[in-house]
Amino acid sequence: MAKFVVTPASVAQRDAWAGGAIPEVERVRPGLWSVPVPIPVNPLRYVLVYVLELPDGVAIVDAGWNTDEAYDALVAGLGVAGYTIADVKGVLVTHIHPDHYGLAGRVREMSGAWIALHPADARLVRERYDDDVIDTLVRRERALLARCGVPAATLDELAGASMMIRHVVSMARPDRLVEDGDELGLPGWDLRAVWTPGHSPGHLCFLSPARRLLFSGDHVLAKITPIVAVHPQSGPNPLADYLDSLAAVRKLDVEEVLPAHEYRFMELAGRVDYVMAHHDERLAEVERVVGASDGVTCWAVATRLTWSRPWETIPSYMRRAANNETLAHLAWLEARGRVLRVAGEPDLWRLP
User: Fold this and answer.
1) Cα-Cα-Cα-Cα dihedral sign, residues 257, 263, 269, 275
2) Is the backbone peptide bond immediately before 315 cis, with ω within 30 degrees of 0?
3) Rounded distance, CA 170 to CA 183, Å?
4) I need a labelling partner for 343 at 20 to 30 A (CA). Which of 39, 86, 273, 285 fits?
């Protein structure tokens, strides 16, 4: 597949990303700032938090992980823009993954800001982050991995892989539930929510039609593609949801995309087309691997796919993501009758 390279909206931000550095705080446009908030020990390195100026303070899009380093970076970035943490009136969370939602509760505690989230993600907060019930989620993940054919010796390790970052989330229930199409009501901003499920069930983008800006969260990024996986808190066919969501945002009249990682960029439609073509190729590859065997587990399919590095060098916690992404592609193919699932312990996949 021919590469499609987007035009960076900020060359300095693109160069920082390419050089392995964290970019500077930037004034994107009048009344809008980009603040990089570091993610420790993570190849993504930072979350881009967007600061929207209001008549009586600011609202932010996403927040970062709940670490002192992240909090200090957010406070410092607000200072560059001329504000303090007490000036934050609202936190618009694109989705509940720790690097977006984790710091929201601490920001609310320090400022009194409201937290906004889509209902589909709000329903998942307690099971994902409440210490009293999180063991249930781990058990459900273990059962799913067993049906995928994950080796018994690694089941417990993979099922509990996310627990190592549990501490970077401040448990915080949202104050506002934001549905698809809702106007956010931020003075001076014509911001509208666009529901884009796939990466998470309640992922939101935020569109400013007047400014022709799309705050895309993890839905559309400049270089990488987000994880779209079947897991205990996903829908049955998240890849179908994701591809439908991509088709929906492709139609938007947008000049600039403001993602949560990497760098801001132009050419939304071209980037969407490239990502959709990538998944078409991946689906074809999964189908070929299934067709080469008369019954194969999801885990075995994952080990035979092309990844960015050899399978044996992928860390165990990332192998879980690879397995669950593979399962999402199998579920998409199953829904269209291109592969069949033979239910069991483990499930086996074959061609019709």
Assistant:
1) negative
2) no
3) 27
4) 285
- Sequence-distant (6+) residues with CB within 8 A of 332 are 237, 239, 240, 283
**Spatial contact of 112 and 104, defined as CB atoms under 8 Å apart:** no
Q: What number of other Cβ atoms are within 10 A of residue 17's Cβ? A: 22
Q: Are 156 and 165 in contact (CB under 8 A)?
A: no
Residue 185 neighbours by CB under 8 Å, 6+ apart: none
* Closest to 90 in 3D by CA, of 120, 124, 121, 59: 59
The C-alpha atoms of residue 9 and residue 24 are separated, in whole angstroms, by: 14
Tell me how far apart the alpha carbons of residues 317 and 45 are, in angstroms, rounded to a whole number: 18
Give dist(CA 248, CA 266) in Å, integer: 17
Q: Which two tokens stand for residue 179?
A: 């549905």
d(CA 9, CA 75): 24
CA distance 302 to 351: 16
Cα separation, 118 vs 220, in Å, equals 18
- Look-up of token digits 């970077």: 168
Distance CA 228, CA 111 (A): 34
Give, for all 352 residues of the chain, the pLDDT tens digit: 778 999 999 999 999 999 999 999 999 999 999 999 999 878 899 999 999 999 999 999 999 999 999 999 999 999 999 999 999 999 999 999 999 999 999 999 999 999 999 999 999 998 888 777 778 888 999 999 999 999 999 999 998 887 666 666 777 899 999 999 999 999 999 999 999 999 999 999 999 999 999 999 999 999 999 999 999 999 999 999 999 999 999 999 999 999 999 999 999 999 999 999 999 999 999 999 999 999 999 999 999 999 999 999 998 889 999 999 999 999 999 999 999 999 999 999 999 9
